[in-house]
Amino acid sequence: MAAAEIKIGQVDDVQELHRTGQGTVPDRYIRDGDDRPGGDNVCALAHIPVIDVGELPRGDELNKLRLACEEWGFFQVVNHGIEGELLDEMEKLTREFFMLPLEEKEKYPMAPGGIQGYGHAFVFSEDQKLDWCNMLALGVEPAFIRQPKLWPTTPARFKDTLERYSVEVRSLCQRLLAHIAETLGLAPATFRDMFGEAVQAVRMNFYPPCPAPELVLGLSAHSDGSAVTVLQQDMSCAGLQVFRGGAWVPVHPIRHALVINIGDSLEVLTNGRYKSVEHRAVTNGERDRLSVVTFYAPAYDVELGPLPEFVSDEAPCRYRRFNHGEYSRHYVTSRLEGKKTLEFAKIDQTKAAPEEPCSCL
């Protein structure tokens, strides 16, 4: 296949680059030195916390959850109630989709600057460094965010399996948010009642082997705009990394465990007590890697700001009040650049007038 035929918009399809045996990485994927994944700032011995959901809200496990949210912003969950068979089927069918011929996958194209369909998201300029990753992203709930024409009909069971999977993950998000509320001294239903008809979207990421994994990133460092994110990663290799204490910590896969992280929305609501955390994906020279990521966030018409319980003289209001739909539009039209998108909501403490009241909920 000629190079001109392996484009999605203006972006190379990295699976096709791998399939055609290209031994070098195009310049657009090669990172500058400080942004490369190698170096001394990877802490391979550390492990993010593991929470047994079946033990919640027992005191010991609830305290572990609180510490995980405070100190990491990331944790893995086991005994979470989603059957292993369903997780396996979702992974299998997602992989089958990415293994389809390019012309079949291109029936569900992600529009330039779009966030649903097959292709590359968060690409906004010709000189932008690209991620070594193909994506299939779909809106799930509420119904009005769905674009049915972008839901693959091949593999045959993909749609039905994703529907069942998404119902289970939505329930898990609601349970986890209830327990997270408890760790904050709030009523378990606090976030459920506040979020309205919560927005749920799924993004499937496929990272083919890369001939120069030390020069590229599978996914640029970023925080999530969600309240919580649920990630299912395959067992092939550790590709997800979390930034903590000035170092990148690999998230080692645990069979049938799910990785949970705090998103920007919860950071705002807790006035920074629980923080969203930068994370990224790295590639491998020999193995491909697959992840299925669900984002769970407040309804677009919900107004967010720090809850009064978390604002005091010792903890001044750090974020302005804003409409969540407004923030979502800002997030999806911005590059993935660490936590830069959250600057949208931050109050500049050096300029804030002391007599100006915080617009908390």
Secondary structure: elements and pairs:
Elements: E1 7-8, E2 11-12, H1 14-19, E3 50-52, H2 59-71, E4 74-78, H3 84-98, H4 102-105, E5 117-119, E6 134-141, H5 158-183, H6 190-195, E7 199-207, E8 219-222, E9 228-233, E10 240-244, E11 247-250, E12 258-262, H7 264-269, E13 279-281, E14 289-297, E15 303-304, E16 322-323, H8 324-332
Parallel strand pairs: 3-4
Antiparallel strand pairs: 1-2, 4-12, 5-6, 6-7, 7-14, 8-13, 9-12, 9-14, 10-11, 10-13, 15-16
Helix pairs in contact: 2-5, 3-5
InterPro entries: DIOX_N, IPNS-like_FE2OG_OXY, IPNS-like_sf, Oxoglu/Fe-dep_dioxygenase_dom, Plant_2OG-oxidoreductases
Keywords: Iron, Metal-binding, Oxidoreductase
Protein name: Fe2OG dioxygenase domain-containing protein
Please describe what this structure looks like.
- With about 350 residues, the chain is of the alpha+beta class.
- It has one domain: Jelly Rolls (Sandwich).
- The chain has 8 helices and 16 strands.
- It has helices spanning about 15-20, 60-70, 85-100, 100-105, 160-185, 190-195, 265-270, 325-330; strands at about 5-10, 10, 50, 75-80, 115-120, 135-140, 200-205, 220, 230-235, 240-245, 245-250, 260, 280, 290-295, 305, 320-325.
- It has an 8-stranded mixed β-sheet with strand order 3-4-12-9-14-7-6-5. Strands 8-13-10-11 form a 4-stranded antiparallel β-sheet, with no helix packed on it. A two-stranded antiparallel sheet has the order 1-2.
- β3 (about 50), α2 and β4 (about 75-80) form a beta-alpha-beta unit.
- α2 (about 60-70) packs across α5 and α3 (about 85-100) crosses α5.
- The longest helix has 26 residues, at about 160-185.
